[in-house]
Design brief:
globular; binds pyridoxal-5'-phosphate; 641 residues; alpha/beta; 30% helix
């Protein structure tokens, strides 16, 4: 692995779990959603369990099944589900369900109805909205939801184990108000005849700053990875060790120095000079710019580039891009980019190889892996689980809420056809064959910007066009013939003409990808209701809020808050409040809306938002915007719908 690489120290994860356990003296649930905040879900889960965590938490059933298929047997709680969720798959794999509305309890009733006369039941934790204004049962629904849950329990469909909620972190007063509200809910639940044995409210920040919020379990995310949930300058009471570092070989070209990792790989844009980095020879560098596919650096003042020995990747000094001990930390990157450490690590592309070190695996091995969820293993497991009665992810029930990137293969083909015709014309007009091949090439870098490099490179070859990549690591995404035929050509691949097939660069062109989701939660709120972390947005009047299961781990960077819109039922609707890792809230005003209602993030239809608009909200280039989508976004080949 001589290219860009992420190192994850599993001993650090274990140490962090122990440090927090001794501080909180409360059983720990390790949150490994979003591929373990970009670190690698399976490896971190094992290390956290070895360190003493007793439960795991992820967002959806697909993430949970990926852990099961890797052999993880600990209890796993999930808390976000689409309208067509395969509830029986949860039962079969012994996954616990966090349920967020009365409507969802009714869906569960329908989905589990056949269990009525069996001795099997699914474990449920009810998720309450005590003020975050996001997922969770609204206070007005608490009593009816508790009554419904008690009924499902009597009928043997569920076993109610827990009640939980999530703090907005909007200050001590707000936290205490949520705590009081949670205690009130516990009382109501008791009166409804529910026997709640696992009460949990606090994530990392609450577990450290509000001991009364610990109850029976604390749900730890960011601190597992050694990062503090608190703003810069606020001391973190546990001594944590960051587990992740990112490095890449330094390269020199005519313009100066660079590393081949950029926005498309999840790095945020930063201002020139905002970050200082170290290389493996002790040289100091300053970040000049983070571009789509590369980061440019220059020797730090007073230093020289003498330490740089140019050679191939294996010999080149490595630049420590993120490295708390030696270089800039995730916190430094967050400060330079105007974001939080959570986003910096979580958005790092799953394409960057992960190398795991430490004894956290329990076997003392040093493993290597991509760190991504093994979807093939899941699909092998799921058909077995899904047996006869449930159909496939295509036709019927699903394991995860809809987060779907549709690839318009027909449009790609027709653009390739145009390019092939233009090349033939140029050849006829006397252009040399080599020159023509390069001029009419197709850029398939960065896993071909959301489309899948294999697909695009395969199509290019079919039309006699030359696939190019900007970076040698991009070659590894290609298989067979494409890998042999593709060329590394930074300059040409960087030229917008070689990306013309995608339509990203032309505001009037149809784009070959569109991103769709669904509403997973709809609720009515009154004036004064705050939404999401920090309550940056407060409803001015009564309104309807919808929850979309896409966050900064998936496709929506935090930087778009206050600007971005989506299209629901043909109407443009704003994202309100902060963008969270797994979700955003939409203000629907008085629009009629329901769970499962389609949401278009961007697309190719006249009413859709163009991906260029999204990229400008995010402050990145369109192709990099799409290339940086996380592994929970699934690709579907076909036309736009
Ligand atoms: C992500 C998440 C957590 C973990 O939060 P941290 O701040 O990373 O500790 C806990 N609970 C829920 C419901 C979450 O979604």
């Amino acid at each position: 692995m001589s290219g860009p690489r992420i190192d994850v120290d599993l001993d650090a994860v274990q140490g962090n779990v122990r440090a927090i356990a001794s501080l909180t003296e409360t059983p720990l649930l390790a949150v490994v959603k979003a591929n373990g905040y970009g670190h690698g879900a399976v490896e971190v889960a094992r290390a956290a369990l070895d360190g003493g965590a007793v439960r795991l938490g992820v967002v959806d059933l697909r993430e949970a099944l990926a852990l099961r298929s890797a052999g993880v047997t600990a209890p796993i709680l999930t808390w976000m589900h689409g309208a067509r969720t395969d509830w029986l798959a949860a039962l079969d794999a012994e996954i616990e369900l966090g349920i967020s509305s009365l409507a969802q309890l009714e869906l569960l009733d329908i989905g589990l109805g056949r269990l009525e006369h069996s001795d099997r039941s699914v474990v449920v934790h009810l998720k309450l909205d005590t003020g975050l204004g996001r997922n969770g049962i609204s206070a007005i629904e608490w009593e009816s939801a508790f009554t419904k849950a008690a009924e499902l329990e009597r009928r043997g469909l569920i076993r109610l184990e827990g009640l939980f909620s999530h703090l907005a972190g909007a200050g001590e007063q707000a936290d205490l108000a949520q705590l009081a509200s949670f205690e009130h809910a516990l009382e109501l639940a008791g009166r409804s005849g529910l026997d709640v044995t696992v009460r949990h409210l606090a994530a990392t920040a609450g577990s450290m700053s509000l001991p009364q919020a610990r109850f029976d379990l604390v749900r730890l995310g960011v601190s597992l990875y050694g990062l503090s949930p608190f703003a810069a300058g606020v001391e973190c009471p546990a001594s944590l060790q960051p587990a992740l570092s990112l490095s890449a070989p330094l390269r020199e070209d005519l313009e100066g120095f660079r590393v081949d990792i950029g926005q498309a790989d999840g790095l945020p844009p930063v201002a020139a000079g905002a970050l200082e980095l170290a290389d493996s020879n002790g040289g100091r560098w300053r970040v000049v710019s983070v571009g789509a596919l590369e980061t440019r650096v220059e020797p730090h003042e007073g230093g020289t580039a003498e330490t740089v020995r140019l050679g191939d990747d294996a010999d080149a000094p490595r630049l420590a891009v993120i490295d708390t001990a030696r270089s800039s930390s995730a916190d430094d990157w967050a400060a330079a980019a105007g974001t939080i450490n959570y986003e910096v690590v979580t958005r790092l592309s799953s394409r960057i190889p992960r190398r795991f070190t430490g004894t956290g695996t329990g076997t003392g091995t040093t493993g290597t892996g991509t760190g991504t969820t093994d979807m093939e293993a899941v699909s092998e497991l799921a058909p077995g689980l899904l047996a006869d009665r449930r159909g496939t992810e295509d036709g019927g029930l699903v394991l995860a809420p809809r987060r779907e990137l549709a690839i318009d293969v027909e449009l790609l083909r027709s653009r390739m056809g145009e390019r092939a015709a233009a090349r033939a014309e140029a050849l006829a007009a006397g252009m040399g064959a080599r020159h023509a091949a390069r001029t009419f090439s197709v850029d398939v870098s960065a896993d071909a910007y959301g489309h899948g490099a294999e697909l695009v490179a395969g199509l290019a070859l079919e039309y006699g066009l030359l696939p190019l990549v900007a970076r040698s690591a991009d070659l590894e995404r290609l298989g067979g013939a494409a890998r042999e035929r593709a060329l590394v050509d930074r300059e040409r691949a960087g030229d917008a003409r070689s990306r013309a097939v995608y339509g990203f660069d032309d505001p009037n062109a149809r784009v070959t990808v569109s991103l769709a989701s669904e509403l997973v939660h709809v609720k009515r709120v009154t004036a004064g209701h705050g939404v999401s972390y920090g309550y940056d947005w407060v409803a001015e009047e009564a309104t309807t809020l919808g929850l979309v299961p896409l966050g900064y781990a998936d496709a929506i960077p935090r930087s778009v808050a206050g600007r971005a819109e989506v299209v629901i039922g043909g109407e443009r609707r704003p994202i309100v409040g902060r963008v969270a890792m797994d979700q955003v809230v939409i203000d629907l005003q008085d629009q009629e809306a329901w769970i499962g209602m389609p949401v278009s993030i961007f697309g190719a239809e006249p009413r859709d938002i163009h991906v260029r608009e999204w990229a400008s909200w995010a402050g990145v280039e369109p192709q990099a915007f799409v290339a940086a989508f996380g592994p929970r976004v699934v690709r579907r080949e076909g036309g736009a719908e």
